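Researcher: Re-running this chain for the archive, since the previous output was lost when a drive failed. Same request as before.
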Amino acid sequence: MELQTLQVVVFLGFTALIALATYLKCRGTRASADSNKDYFLAGGGLSWVFVAGSITLTNLSTDQLVGMNGNQMALLAWWEFAAVAGLFILAKVFLPVYYRNNCTTTTELLEKRYNDHHIRATVSVMFLLGNIFIFLPAMLYGGSLFMQSMFGIDVSIMVLASLFAIIGAGYAVFGGLRAVAVSDTYSGVLLLGLGMLVVFLALQAIDFDFTGVPTERLTLIGANDSPIPWHTLLTGMLFIQVFYWSTNQTITQRAMASPTLKEAQKGVFAAAGIRLLIVPPMIVLPGIVSYKLYGDIGDAAYGRIVSDVLPVWLSGAFAAAIAAAVLTSFNSILNSSTALYVMDIHEKYFNDTPDVKKLSGWVTVVFVGLALALVPMYQQADSIINTVQELYGLLSMPILSTFLVGLMFKGVDPRAMIIAVVSGTALYGLFTFTWAPLHYIHLMFVTLIFCVITALVVNSVVFGRRAAYIGLKPQV
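Model: Regenerated structure tokens:
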């Protein structure tokens, strides 16, 4: 009982410390004249340190730590290595365009490129569907599962998920992006430090000896029946990363919140360095070690290995770090989802001058309720990360096609693009639920090509317009 009390005291202490540090950093910050920019882009005042910290922790949550370690194989590190390429493309290709067009949301760029707000609203709705029905419930479930398996507590997943949701929503509603980004960064320092300590202690627990672990769990060359066959690295993998890091509002919102483009690019490059050097061992090595120690235990692997290798006095601190990762990822997606709804839908179709903070609060409550209702669905999944990636293909490649066509061509009718997006979503749905001739990462690439070709053909045949190719050039 005394040890449990110590864990709880340390957990609450670190959690309160992060909250206090965030408050002290954010208090007294002068508001921007533009309420949207102030609330959703921190008034354009994020330095590169907070851009890097927020991008890192927004992505690095329990769906990564629990889900990737739950596969218990090195192969999952490819998601992180490929992410480095995605971040460089964000910094050199997409960010200059967002800054040049003074965008608050990524979808605002679509309205300007196609000169039509309906395409902007269509893509925003797709982002919202992905955030509410896929990412938010997966994060709540992953965080709750970790707490259960780490502490062995007899508390239901739904109770834990509700606590995460309520606290995370509080950050998103009352602090806006500034509070989210600052808390991300402070939490990130704690999580990365303790996460690497877990890696070292896990390796020490097996004397740095992987003997007995099957070769297929140690290799980086995936077989055809593996989660990431090697040939998928040549097709859909890169485009998944371009979509996630360069067009996804949750990520790019942080990079668009700096005072200058160069400051934002510094933050993105720093985030890329962290993903290359620090994150890969954190998301695969504890899982592999857990396979040697416990066998194939799936998504429970990370919580169990952390519980076994960390000193009891540190487990409370690590619980605080994981809770912070869940909360910051959760409230980051909430904040970006609210931005999409308020700016791309509400202001365009209902009221162009709303009380942004009040409206955002009500929208957040609705989104949180929907996410909580979907948590039980993820309890049935074999692997959190594989389920999330496969389901998000319904939206990711059709969305990416709108950005690629909009940036690479002139003269494309927005109605042609909307038809392509709807058709591409239906095609991937057919692949996912009815007929899958290839691995889903290949099928995502097929869906992207289908959407681009469909948009150009419909533009010419149905609307009688000729698209002019203008290219997509990196920017300094």
